[in-house]
Amino acid sequence: MNSKKQAPVKYYVGIDVGSASVRAALVDEFGTVVAHADQPIQIWEPQSDHYEQSSADIWAACCLVTKKVVCGVDASQIRGVGFDATCSLVVVDKQFQPLAVNCEGQNYRNVIMWMDHRAVSQVERINATQHRVLSYVGGVMSVEMQPPKLLWIKENLQESCWEKAGYFFDLPDFLSWKATGVTARSLCTVVCKWTYTSDGGWDDSFWKIIGLEDLVKDKYEKIGNHILSPGESVGKGLMPEAAKDLGLPEGIAVAASLIDAHAGGLGVIGADVKGHNLPCENQPITSRVAMICGTSSCHMGVSETPIFVPGVWGPYFSAMVPGLWLNEGGQSATGRLIEHVVRGHVAFPELQSKAAASAHSIYTYLNSHLDLIKKSLPVGFLTVDLHVWPDFHGNRSPLTDLTLKGMVVGLTLSRGLDELALIYLATIQAIALGTRHILETMQAAGHHINTLFLCGGLSKNPLFVQMHADITGKPVVLSKEVESVLVGAAILGACASGDFASIQEAMAKMGKIGRVVQPNHGHKRFYDKKYEVFLKLVEHQREYRSIMNSF
Protein backbone atom coordinates (compact mmCIF):
# COMPACT_ATOMS: atom_id res chain seq x y z
CA MET A 1 0.00 0.00 0.00
CA ASN A 2 1.15 3.52 -0.80
CA SER A 3 0.78 5.89 2.12
CA LYS A 4 0.52 9.54 1.18
CA LYS A 5 2.51 11.78 3.48
CA GLN A 6 0.30 14.44 5.05
CA ALA A 7 1.44 18.02 4.51
CA PRO A 8 2.36 19.84 7.73
CA VAL A 9 -0.24 22.28 9.03
CA LYS A 10 0.39 25.94 8.28
CA TYR A 11 0.14 28.45 11.12
CA TYR A 12 -0.28 32.22 11.29
CA VAL A 13 0.15 34.58 14.23
CA GLY A 14 -2.48 37.22 14.93
CA ILE A 15 -1.59 40.02 17.36
CA ASP A 16 -4.34 42.29 18.67
CA VAL A 17 -3.74 45.44 20.73
CA GLY A 18 -6.92 46.39 22.54
CA SER A 19 -7.54 49.26 24.92
CA ALA A 20 -6.38 47.51 28.08
CA SER A 21 -4.48 44.43 26.89
CA VAL A 22 -2.47 42.84 24.10
CA ARG A 23 -3.48 39.39 22.88
CA ALA A 24 -1.87 36.95 20.49
CA ALA A 25 -3.08 33.72 18.92
CA LEU A 26 -1.56 30.97 16.87
CA VAL A 27 -4.17 30.15 14.23
CA ASP A 28 -4.06 27.29 11.76
CA GLU A 29 -5.01 27.43 8.07
CA PHE A 30 -8.56 26.29 8.93
CA GLY A 31 -9.18 29.20 11.31
CA THR A 32 -8.75 27.24 14.56
CA VAL A 33 -7.10 29.09 17.46
CA VAL A 34 -4.42 26.64 18.61
CA ALA A 35 -2.85 28.81 21.33
CA HIS A 36 -3.81 32.10 22.93
CA ALA A 37 -2.21 34.51 25.43
CA ASP A 38 -2.88 37.99 26.76
CA GLN A 39 -1.03 40.66 28.71
CA PRO A 40 -2.40 43.88 30.29
CA ILE A 41 -1.03 47.23 29.18
CA GLN A 42 -0.99 50.49 31.08
CA ILE A 43 -3.35 53.44 30.61
CA TRP A 44 -2.64 56.87 32.07
CA GLU A 45 -5.43 59.40 32.67
CA PRO A 46 -3.56 62.57 33.71
CA GLN A 47 -6.77 64.62 33.56
CA SER A 48 -10.39 64.23 32.53
CA ASP A 49 -10.82 62.97 28.94
CA HIS A 50 -7.04 62.56 28.46
CA TYR A 51 -6.01 58.92 27.94
CA GLU A 52 -2.42 57.99 27.17
CA GLN A 53 -0.33 54.86 26.65
CA SER A 54 3.28 53.91 25.94
CA SER A 55 4.35 52.41 22.61
CA ALA A 56 7.29 50.72 24.38
CA ASP A 57 4.93 49.10 26.90
CA ILE A 58 2.65 47.95 24.05
CA TRP A 59 5.49 46.45 21.99
CA ALA A 60 6.92 44.65 25.05
CA ALA A 61 3.48 43.10 25.63
CA CYS A 62 3.29 42.06 21.95
CA CYS A 63 6.61 40.26 22.31
CA LEU A 64 5.63 38.53 25.54
CA VAL A 65 2.32 37.10 24.27
CA THR A 66 3.74 36.09 20.89
CA LYS A 67 6.58 34.11 22.46
CA LYS A 68 4.00 32.29 24.59
CA VAL A 69 1.76 31.19 21.71
CA VAL A 70 4.57 29.95 19.44
CA CYS A 71 6.46 28.12 22.18
CA GLY A 72 7.14 24.54 21.09
CA VAL A 73 5.89 25.03 17.52
CA ASP A 74 8.08 24.15 14.53
CA ALA A 75 9.14 27.57 13.24
CA SER A 76 9.04 26.37 9.63
CA GLN A 77 5.26 25.93 9.93
CA ILE A 78 4.68 29.60 10.92
CA ARG A 79 4.01 31.39 7.65
CA GLY A 80 2.99 34.95 8.50
CA VAL A 81 2.01 37.49 11.13
CA GLY A 82 -0.74 40.10 11.15
CA PHE A 83 -1.32 43.01 13.53
CA ASP A 84 -4.44 44.90 14.49
CA ALA A 85 -4.80 47.62 17.11
CA THR A 86 -6.96 50.42 18.39
CA CYS A 87 -6.82 53.57 16.27
CA SER A 88 -4.64 55.41 18.78
CA LEU A 89 -2.06 58.03 17.77
CA VAL A 90 1.65 57.23 18.26
CA VAL A 91 4.22 60.04 18.14
CA VAL A 92 7.97 59.51 17.64
CA ASP A 93 10.84 61.84 16.75
CA LYS A 94 13.05 61.70 13.65
CA GLN A 95 15.11 58.89 15.23
CA PHE A 96 11.88 56.97 16.04
CA GLN A 97 12.21 57.69 19.77
CA PRO A 98 8.99 58.35 21.74
CA LEU A 99 7.82 61.92 22.22
CA ALA A 100 5.59 63.09 25.07
CA VAL A 101 1.97 63.84 24.17
CA ASN A 102 1.47 65.49 27.56
CA CYS A 103 2.40 68.70 29.29
CA GLU A 104 4.41 66.81 31.92
CA GLY A 105 7.05 65.91 29.31
CA GLN A 106 6.85 62.17 30.02
CA ASN A 107 8.25 60.84 26.73
CA TYR A 108 7.34 57.21 27.39
CA ARG A 109 3.68 58.33 27.35
CA ASN A 110 3.72 58.93 23.59
CA VAL A 111 0.31 57.51 22.58
CA ILE A 112 -2.97 59.45 22.58
CA MET A 113 -5.61 56.77 22.91
CA TRP A 114 -8.56 56.44 20.54
CA MET A 115 -11.01 57.29 23.37
CA ASP A 116 -9.17 60.49 24.31
CA HIS A 117 -11.46 63.52 23.95
CA ARG A 118 -8.99 66.35 24.60
CA ALA A 119 -9.38 67.84 21.10
CA VAL A 120 -13.01 68.99 21.40
CA SER A 121 -12.41 72.59 20.35
CA GLN A 122 -10.16 71.46 17.49
CA VAL A 123 -12.75 69.07 16.05
CA GLU A 124 -15.46 71.73 16.29
CA ARG A 125 -13.32 74.07 14.18
CA ILE A 126 -12.55 71.30 11.68
CA ASN A 127 -16.25 70.51 11.31
CA ALA A 128 -17.05 74.19 10.87
CA THR A 129 -15.00 74.17 7.63
CA GLN A 130 -17.56 71.78 6.05
CA HIS A 131 -14.73 70.54 3.86
CA ARG A 132 -15.62 67.91 1.26
CA VAL A 133 -13.55 65.17 2.96
CA LEU A 134 -16.02 65.27 5.87
CA SER A 135 -18.64 63.63 3.64
CA TYR A 136 -16.62 60.42 4.04
CA VAL A 137 -16.97 60.44 7.84
CA GLY A 138 -20.74 60.78 8.02
CA GLY A 139 -20.62 64.55 7.53
CA VAL A 140 -19.06 65.23 10.94
CA MET A 141 -15.56 64.32 12.07
CA SER A 142 -15.23 62.56 15.43
CA VAL A 143 -12.93 63.80 18.18
CA GLU A 144 -11.59 60.23 18.18
CA MET A 145 -10.02 60.66 14.71
CA GLN A 146 -6.45 61.81 14.16
CA PRO A 147 -6.65 65.31 12.54
CA PRO A 148 -8.11 67.01 15.67
CA LYS A 149 -5.51 65.27 17.85
CA LEU A 150 -2.71 66.45 15.56
CA LEU A 151 -4.07 69.99 15.72
CA TRP A 152 -4.23 69.79 19.53
CA ILE A 153 -0.56 68.76 19.62
CA LYS A 154 0.44 71.65 17.37
CA GLU A 155 -1.51 74.17 19.45
CA ASN A 156 -0.56 72.87 22.89
CA LEU A 157 2.82 71.14 22.51
CA GLN A 158 4.38 73.15 19.70
CA GLU A 159 8.01 73.13 20.86
CA SER A 160 8.14 69.96 22.93
CA CYS A 161 6.36 67.66 20.47
CA TRP A 162 5.10 69.12 17.19
CA GLU A 163 8.41 70.60 16.01
CA LYS A 164 10.42 67.55 17.11
CA ALA A 165 8.04 64.95 15.66
CA GLY A 166 9.40 62.81 12.85
CA TYR A 167 6.41 60.49 12.40
CA PHE A 168 2.79 60.26 13.48
CA PHE A 169 1.56 56.66 13.28
CA ASP A 170 -1.78 55.05 13.76
CA LEU A 171 -1.02 52.31 16.28
CA PRO A 172 -1.59 49.42 13.80
CA ASP A 173 0.95 51.03 11.43
CA PHE A 174 3.43 51.59 14.26
CA LEU A 175 3.38 47.85 14.91
CA SER A 176 4.04 46.89 11.28
CA TRP A 177 6.91 49.44 11.23
CA LYS A 178 8.32 47.98 14.43
CA ALA A 179 8.23 44.51 12.86
CA THR A 180 9.67 45.43 9.45
CA GLY A 181 11.38 48.82 9.66
CA VAL A 182 9.12 50.02 6.83
CA THR A 183 7.02 53.17 7.44
CA ALA A 184 4.27 52.17 5.02
CA ARG A 185 0.71 52.79 6.24
CA SER A 186 -2.35 50.62 5.85
CA LEU A 187 -5.14 51.84 3.60
CA CYS A 188 -7.49 50.92 6.45
CA THR A 189 -6.01 53.35 8.96
CA VAL A 190 -5.38 56.34 6.69
CA VAL A 191 -8.79 56.11 5.01
CA CYS A 192 -10.80 55.56 8.18
CA LYS A 193 -9.04 57.90 10.62
CA TRP A 194 -6.91 60.38 8.63
CA THR A 195 -9.13 61.50 5.63
CA TYR A 196 -7.06 59.78 2.93
CA THR A 197 -9.25 58.68 0.01
CA SER A 198 -8.52 55.55 -1.99
CA ASP A 199 -9.08 57.33 -5.29
CA GLY A 200 -7.61 60.79 -4.61
CA GLY A 201 -5.13 60.29 -1.77
CA TRP A 202 -4.44 63.21 0.57
CA ASP A 203 -6.32 66.47 -0.01
CA ASP A 204 -3.87 69.36 0.41
CA SER A 205 -6.67 71.90 0.81
CA PHE A 206 -8.06 70.12 3.89
CA TRP A 207 -4.79 70.14 5.82
CA LYS A 208 -4.18 73.76 4.88
CA ILE A 209 -7.64 74.99 5.88
CA ILE A 210 -7.43 73.35 9.32
CA GLY A 211 -3.96 74.79 10.04
CA LEU A 212 -1.79 71.72 9.49
CA GLU A 213 -0.15 72.86 6.26
CA ASP A 214 3.22 71.69 7.70
CA LEU A 215 2.24 68.13 6.81
CA VAL A 216 1.77 69.03 3.15
CA LYS A 217 5.21 70.63 2.81
CA ASP A 218 7.14 67.39 3.33
CA LYS A 219 4.82 65.46 0.99
CA TYR A 220 3.09 63.77 3.92
CA GLU A 221 6.27 62.01 5.03
CA LYS A 222 5.21 62.33 8.68
CA ILE A 223 1.75 60.77 8.26
CA GLY A 224 2.38 58.41 5.35
CA ASN A 225 3.01 58.61 1.62
CA HIS A 226 3.46 54.87 1.02
CA ILE A 227 0.07 53.16 1.38
CA LEU A 228 -0.56 49.38 1.28
CA SER A 229 -3.78 47.39 1.18
CA PRO A 230 -4.60 45.36 4.32
CA GLY A 231 -3.02 41.91 4.07
CA GLU A 232 -0.37 43.03 1.58
CA SER A 233 3.15 41.94 2.50
CA VAL A 234 5.25 44.74 4.07
CA GLY A 235 8.88 45.14 3.03
CA LYS A 236 11.06 42.05 3.30
CA GLY A 237 9.12 40.58 6.19
CA LEU A 238 10.17 40.33 9.83
CA MET A 239 13.51 42.02 10.43
CA PRO A 240 16.13 40.33 12.66
CA GLU A 241 15.70 42.46 15.80
CA ALA A 242 11.89 42.14 15.77
CA ALA A 243 12.13 38.41 15.03
CA LYS A 244 14.26 37.96 18.13
CA ASP A 245 11.89 40.09 20.23
CA LEU A 246 8.81 38.16 19.08
CA GLY A 247 10.32 34.68 19.01
CA LEU A 248 9.43 34.27 15.33
CA PRO A 249 11.53 33.31 12.29
CA GLU A 250 13.37 36.14 10.57
CA GLY A 251 11.92 37.10 7.20
CA ILE A 252 8.42 35.61 7.60
CA ALA A 253 5.67 37.67 5.99
CA VAL A 254 4.27 40.65 7.89
CA ALA A 255 0.95 42.00 6.68
CA ALA A 256 -0.24 45.58 6.31
CA SER A 257 -2.43 45.95 9.37
CA LEU A 258 -6.02 46.70 10.31
CA ILE A 259 -7.80 48.65 13.02
CA ASP A 260 -9.00 46.17 15.67
CA ALA A 261 -12.71 46.45 14.84
CA HIS A 262 -11.99 45.87 11.16
CA ALA A 263 -9.98 42.76 12.02
CA GLY A 264 -13.00 41.50 13.96
CA GLY A 265 -15.17 42.17 10.93
CA LEU A 266 -12.74 40.24 8.74
CA GLY A 267 -12.84 37.31 11.15
CA VAL A 268 -16.62 36.86 11.07
CA ILE A 269 -18.41 38.60 8.20
CA GLY A 270 -17.30 36.28 5.40
CA ALA A 271 -18.06 32.95 7.08
CA ASP A 272 -19.96 30.22 5.21
CA VAL A 273 -23.56 30.12 6.59
CA LYS A 274 -24.95 27.19 4.60
CA GLY A 275 -27.32 24.97 6.57
CA HIS A 276 -28.13 27.45 9.34
CA ASN A 277 -31.42 28.70 7.87
CA LEU A 278 -30.31 32.32 7.98
CA PRO A 279 -31.78 35.13 5.83
CA CYS A 280 -28.28 36.00 4.60
CA GLU A 281 -27.76 32.53 3.08
CA ASN A 282 -27.41 32.80 -0.71
CA GLN A 283 -27.34 36.59 -0.25
CA PRO A 284 -24.31 38.80 -0.87
CA ILE A 285 -22.08 39.71 2.07
CA THR A 286 -23.69 43.17 1.90
CA SER A 287 -26.71 41.74 3.78
CA ARG A 288 -24.56 41.30 6.90
CA VAL A 289 -23.30 43.63 9.61
CA ALA A 290 -20.34 42.65 11.78
CA MET A 291 -20.61 44.04 15.30
CA ILE A 292 -17.38 44.07 17.27
CA CYS A 293 -18.26 44.68 20.90
CA GLY A 294 -15.68 45.19 23.61
CA THR A 295 -14.77 48.38 25.49
CA SER A 296 -16.66 50.18 22.73
CA SER A 297 -18.68 48.76 19.83
CA CYS A 298 -18.34 49.09 16.06
CA HIS A 299 -20.94 48.18 13.44
CA MET A 300 -19.35 47.30 10.09
CA GLY A 301 -21.51 47.11 6.97
CA VAL A 302 -20.25 46.75 3.39
CA SER A 303 -21.76 47.71 0.05
CA GLU A 304 -20.89 47.35 -3.62
CA THR A 305 -21.43 51.06 -4.27
CA PRO A 306 -20.72 53.99 -1.92
CA ILE A 307 -23.54 54.74 0.54
CA PHE A 308 -23.36 58.01 2.45
CA VAL A 309 -25.03 57.55 5.85
CA PRO A 310 -25.56 60.64 8.04
CA GLY A 311 -23.70 60.20 11.31
CA VAL A 312 -22.01 56.95 10.26
CA TRP A 313 -18.37 56.88 9.17
CA GLY A 314 -17.55 56.09 5.55
CA PRO A 315 -18.03 55.08 2.85
CA TYR A 316 -14.43 53.84 2.78
CA PHE A 317 -13.33 51.86 -0.28
CA SER A 318 -11.43 48.60 0.41
CA ALA A 319 -10.81 49.57 4.04
CA MET A 320 -11.87 46.13 5.31
CA VAL A 321 -12.95 43.84 2.47
CA PRO A 322 -11.10 44.55 -0.82
CA GLY A 323 -13.38 45.88 -3.56
CA LEU A 324 -16.26 46.79 -1.22
CA TRP A 325 -17.24 50.05 0.44
CA LEU A 326 -17.35 50.12 4.24
CA ASN A 327 -19.65 52.07 6.56
CA GLU A 328 -18.78 52.04 10.24
CA GLY A 329 -21.21 52.92 12.98
CA GLY A 330 -20.15 52.87 16.59
CA GLN A 331 -20.81 53.40 20.28
CA SER A 332 -17.96 54.96 22.26
CA ALA A 333 -18.66 53.15 25.52
CA THR A 334 -20.33 49.72 25.76
CA GLY A 335 -18.31 47.20 27.77
CA ARG A 336 -16.82 50.15 29.58
CA LEU A 337 -20.30 51.50 30.32
CA ILE A 338 -21.59 48.17 31.68
CA GLU A 339 -18.55 47.94 33.94
CA HIS A 340 -19.01 51.56 35.07
CA VAL A 341 -22.68 51.02 35.97
CA VAL A 342 -22.15 47.70 37.74
CA ARG A 343 -18.99 48.55 39.68
CA GLY A 344 -20.31 51.97 40.67
CA HIS A 345 -23.46 50.59 42.30
CA VAL A 346 -23.68 50.46 46.09
CA ALA A 347 -24.52 46.73 45.96
CA PHE A 348 -21.38 45.84 43.99
CA PRO A 349 -19.43 44.49 47.02
CA GLU A 350 -22.35 42.13 47.76
CA LEU A 351 -22.39 41.02 44.11
CA GLN A 352 -18.65 40.47 44.15
CA SER A 353 -18.70 38.27 47.24
CA LYS A 354 -21.71 36.20 46.09
CA ALA A 355 -20.25 35.69 42.61
CA ALA A 356 -16.93 34.58 44.14
CA ALA A 357 -18.72 32.17 46.48
CA SER A 358 -20.54 30.59 43.54
CA ALA A 359 -17.32 30.46 41.45
CA HIS A 360 -18.97 32.52 38.69
CA SER A 361 -18.08 35.81 37.02
CA ILE A 362 -20.07 38.82 38.21
CA TYR A 363 -21.95 38.92 34.88
CA THR A 364 -22.85 35.23 34.92
CA TYR A 365 -24.12 35.73 38.47
CA LEU A 366 -26.16 38.80 37.45
CA ASN A 367 -27.72 36.88 34.55
CA SER A 368 -28.70 34.07 36.93
CA HIS A 369 -30.08 36.57 39.44
CA LEU A 370 -32.28 38.12 36.76
CA ASP A 371 -33.68 34.66 35.99
CA LEU A 372 -34.54 34.30 39.69
CA ILE A 373 -36.42 37.59 39.99
CA LYS A 374 -38.23 37.55 36.64
CA LYS A 375 -41.04 35.25 37.94
CA SER A 376 -43.38 34.55 35.02
CA LEU A 377 -42.15 37.47 32.88
CA PRO A 378 -39.56 37.28 30.11
CA VAL A 379 -36.33 38.69 31.58
CA GLY A 380 -36.31 41.73 29.29
CA PHE A 381 -39.73 42.87 30.49
CA LEU A 382 -38.34 43.59 33.99
CA THR A 383 -37.33 47.08 32.80
CA VAL A 384 -40.82 48.27 31.87
CA ASP A 385 -40.30 51.26 34.23
CA LEU A 386 -36.52 51.62 33.93
CA HIS A 387 -34.87 53.25 30.91
CA VAL A 388 -31.26 54.21 30.10
CA TRP A 389 -29.76 56.52 27.48
CA PRO A 390 -26.24 55.03 27.08
CA ASP A 391 -24.16 57.98 25.87
CA PHE A 392 -22.10 58.46 29.04
CA HIS A 393 -19.11 59.23 26.76
CA GLY A 394 -20.97 61.09 24.01
CA ASN A 395 -22.67 59.71 20.89
CA ARG A 396 -20.52 58.47 18.02
CA SER A 397 -23.33 57.21 15.76
CA PRO A 398 -25.74 58.13 14.40
CA LEU A 399 -26.13 61.49 16.20
CA THR A 400 -22.39 62.40 16.21
CA ASP A 401 -22.78 64.50 19.34
CA LEU A 402 -19.97 64.05 21.83
CA THR A 403 -21.68 66.49 24.25
CA LEU A 404 -24.58 64.11 24.90
CA LYS A 405 -24.70 62.64 28.40
CA GLY A 406 -26.04 59.42 29.89
CA MET A 407 -29.53 59.30 31.38
CA VAL A 408 -31.39 56.92 33.71
CA VAL A 409 -35.15 57.22 34.19
CA GLY A 410 -37.06 55.17 36.75
CA LEU A 411 -34.77 55.01 39.80
CA THR A 412 -36.11 54.20 43.28
CA LEU A 413 -34.65 54.28 46.79
CA SER A 414 -33.86 50.55 46.64
CA ARG A 415 -30.15 49.80 46.94
CA GLY A 416 -29.93 46.00 46.82
CA LEU A 417 -28.78 43.33 44.41
CA ASP A 418 -32.16 43.25 42.65
CA GLU A 419 -31.78 46.90 41.76
CA LEU A 420 -28.22 46.39 40.54
CA ALA A 421 -29.36 43.52 38.32
CA LEU A 422 -32.13 45.68 36.85
CA ILE A 423 -29.89 48.65 36.03
CA TYR A 424 -27.40 46.18 34.49
CA LEU A 425 -30.20 44.77 32.31
CA ALA A 426 -31.48 48.23 31.35
CA THR A 427 -27.94 49.29 30.37
CA ILE A 428 -27.50 46.26 28.09
CA GLN A 429 -30.89 46.99 26.53
CA ALA A 430 -29.90 50.62 25.98
CA ILE A 431 -26.76 49.52 24.11
CA ALA A 432 -28.90 47.19 21.95
CA LEU A 433 -31.40 50.01 21.32
CA GLY A 434 -28.45 52.17 20.24
CA THR A 435 -27.46 49.42 17.79
CA ARG A 436 -31.03 49.40 16.43
CA HIS A 437 -30.80 53.19 15.98
CA ILE A 438 -27.58 52.79 13.98
CA LEU A 439 -28.93 49.92 11.83
CA GLU A 440 -32.15 51.80 11.01
CA THR A 441 -30.12 54.85 9.97
CA MET A 442 -27.92 52.67 7.71
CA GLN A 443 -30.96 50.98 6.18
CA ALA A 444 -32.72 54.28 5.57
CA ALA A 445 -29.65 55.39 3.57
CA GLY A 446 -29.65 52.30 1.36
CA HIS A 447 -28.14 49.33 3.20
CA HIS A 448 -30.11 46.05 3.19
CA ILE A 449 -29.20 44.27 6.41
CA ASN A 450 -30.82 41.07 7.66
CA THR A 451 -28.24 39.35 9.91
CA LEU A 452 -25.86 40.44 12.70
CA PHE A 453 -22.46 38.79 13.20
CA LEU A 454 -21.14 39.43 16.72
CA CYS A 455 -17.64 39.05 18.11
CA GLY A 456 -15.56 40.56 20.89
CA GLY A 457 -15.71 40.25 24.66
CA LEU A 458 -19.38 41.16 25.07
CA SER A 459 -20.43 38.45 22.61
CA LYS A 460 -19.53 35.95 25.37
CA ASN A 461 -22.43 37.29 27.47
CA PRO A 462 -25.64 35.42 26.46
CA LEU A 463 -27.89 38.19 27.83
CA PHE A 464 -26.10 40.82 25.70
CA VAL A 465 -26.47 38.62 22.61
CA GLN A 466 -30.16 37.79 23.18
CA MET A 467 -31.08 41.43 23.81
CA HIS A 468 -29.44 42.41 20.51
CA ALA A 469 -31.42 39.73 18.67
CA ASP A 470 -34.73 40.67 20.35
CA ILE A 471 -34.32 44.43 20.08
CA THR A 472 -33.09 44.54 16.46
CA GLY A 473 -35.40 41.69 15.38
CA LYS A 474 -32.47 40.07 13.52
CA PRO A 475 -30.72 36.73 14.04
CA VAL A 476 -27.30 36.97 15.65
CA VAL A 477 -24.46 34.76 14.42
CA LEU A 478 -21.62 33.99 16.82
CA SER A 479 -18.24 32.84 15.58
CA LYS A 480 -17.01 29.34 16.37
CA GLU A 481 -13.84 30.99 17.60
CA VAL A 482 -14.64 33.53 20.31
CA GLU A 483 -11.42 35.39 19.48
CA SER A 484 -12.60 36.52 16.04
CA VAL A 485 -10.44 39.65 16.11
CA LEU A 486 -7.35 37.48 16.45
CA VAL A 487 -8.57 35.25 13.62
CA GLY A 488 -8.96 38.41 11.52
CA ALA A 489 -5.38 39.45 12.31
CA ALA A 490 -4.17 35.95 11.43
CA ILE A 491 -6.09 36.14 8.12
CA LEU A 492 -3.92 39.16 7.28
CA GLY A 493 -0.78 37.14 7.95
CA ALA A 494 -2.14 34.28 5.84
CA CYS A 495 -2.71 36.63 2.91
CA ALA A 496 0.73 38.24 3.26
CA SER A 497 2.32 34.77 3.17
CA GLY A 498 0.78 34.08 -0.25
CA ASP A 499 -1.03 30.96 0.99
CA PHE A 500 -4.38 32.43 -0.07
CA ALA A 501 -5.11 34.20 -3.34
CA SER A 502 -7.28 36.86 -1.67
CA ILE A 503 -8.66 38.06 1.63
CA GLN A 504 -12.11 36.83 0.54
CA GLU A 505 -10.75 33.29 0.08
CA ALA A 506 -9.06 33.37 3.49
CA MET A 507 -12.20 34.77 5.15
CA ALA A 508 -14.35 31.94 3.75
CA LYS A 509 -11.90 29.23 4.82
CA MET A 510 -10.79 30.58 8.20
CA GLY A 511 -14.02 32.20 9.44
CA LYS A 512 -16.32 29.62 11.07
CA ILE A 513 -19.85 29.89 12.48
CA GLY A 514 -20.55 28.69 15.99
CA ARG A 515 -23.98 29.42 17.44
CA VAL A 516 -27.00 31.24 15.97
CA VAL A 517 -29.31 33.17 18.32
CA GLN A 518 -32.78 33.88 16.96
CA PRO A 519 -34.93 36.84 18.09
CA ASN A 520 -38.05 36.24 20.18
CA HIS A 521 -40.57 37.73 17.75
CA GLY A 522 -43.27 37.52 20.41
CA HIS A 523 -41.43 40.24 22.33
CA LYS A 524 -41.43 42.68 19.39
CA ARG A 525 -44.18 44.97 20.67
CA PHE A 526 -42.49 45.45 24.04
CA TYR A 527 -39.17 46.41 22.45
CA ASP A 528 -40.85 48.67 19.91
CA LYS A 529 -42.27 50.58 22.90
CA LYS A 530 -38.86 50.61 24.61
CA TYR A 531 -37.39 52.04 21.41
CA GLU A 532 -40.02 54.80 21.38
CA VAL A 533 -39.02 55.73 24.92
CA PHE A 534 -35.33 55.51 23.97
CA LEU A 535 -35.73 58.11 21.23
CA LYS A 536 -37.81 60.33 23.53
CA LEU A 537 -34.97 60.39 26.07
CA VAL A 538 -32.56 62.17 23.73
CA GLU A 539 -35.33 64.57 22.68
CA HIS A 540 -35.88 65.49 26.31
CA GLN A 541 -32.15 65.85 26.94
CA ARG A 542 -31.82 68.28 24.07
CA GLU A 543 -34.93 70.13 25.21
CA TYR A 544 -33.76 70.66 28.78
CA ARG A 545 -30.28 71.64 27.58
CA SER A 546 -31.86 74.22 25.32
CA ILE A 547 -33.79 75.59 28.30
CA MET A 548 -30.67 75.81 30.46
CA ASN A 549 -28.59 77.31 27.65
CA SER A 550 -31.03 80.22 27.52
CA PHE A 551 -30.28 81.02 31.18
TrEMBL record:
**Family from the record:** Belongs to the FGGY kinase family.
Alphabetical UniProt keywords = Kinase, Transferase
Organism of origin: Cochlearius cochlearius (Boat-billed heron)
Protein's name according to its UniProt entry: FGGY carbohydrate kinase domain-containing protein
Return the Gene3D superfamilies for the record: 1.20.58.2240, 3.30.420.40
Q: Does the keyword Cell membrane apply?
A: no
What are its GO biological-process terms? pentose metabolic process
Ranges for domain Carbohydrate kinase FGGY C-terminal: 290-496
